[in-house]
Fold these 2 entries.
Entry 1:
Amino acid sequence: MSLFSFALPLNGKRCSACDAALSNWYFEKDGLLFCKDDYWAKYGESCQDCGHIITGPVMVAGDHKFHPECFCCTSCGNFIGDGESYALVERSKLYWRREGFLVAKSLNDK
């Protein structure tokens, strides 16, 4: 699979989803050609926090993927940077590690 192809003569090639004429930049998957919007709509993954398609760098916690700017502590809202410790509570809530242990402890105390 090649994500981007460019500088090739397109000879009237069109997006396999919307039939739009393709420019020099397009996506290819399984032999099909796509415009950017249709490629991400069909094959993109959604951010766990905001729900928008992730088209660039991704932060991963468990099975969940986030935009880097959405990778924030559920409790205080502060950004959790690359390499910083965090806890994933109830399989989807992010907490800075020190806050995560406090939250996890309070959930277990109930």
Entry 2:
Amino acid sequence: MSVSERNSKEEEEFKNKMQRLKLNDQKMTYLQLFGYQLGVQKMQALSDALKVNQTLTHLEISLNRIGDKVIEALSEALKVNQSITNLILSYNLIGANGIEALNESLKENQTITKLNLYEKLEWKKRECKLYLNL
């Protein structure tokens, strides 16, 4: 399979998953987007789906190299989503602004009980303080 065929297949799988989320597919309680290279456009599609979804309980978006701008889009969705209980954002490029956006969303979201940001060995002092306040 060529790289373009694989990318096309991954794009189709992503669109299918977003559609299932929007339709509140009862069988879709766990979504793992591991290494999907999520950019702003895909994260916006995910955020839009999460705003209406009521079935997803576990969301893993690890190893995607997503940074603060992308996390800010996700954080907006987390303010209204009331089904996710477990959020895993390991091995991304989340900085202080992303942590701050997550912190703000968790003030409104009372359903997330587990948040995994395992990734950073070299966070700056501000990022550590923000993380400890989550």
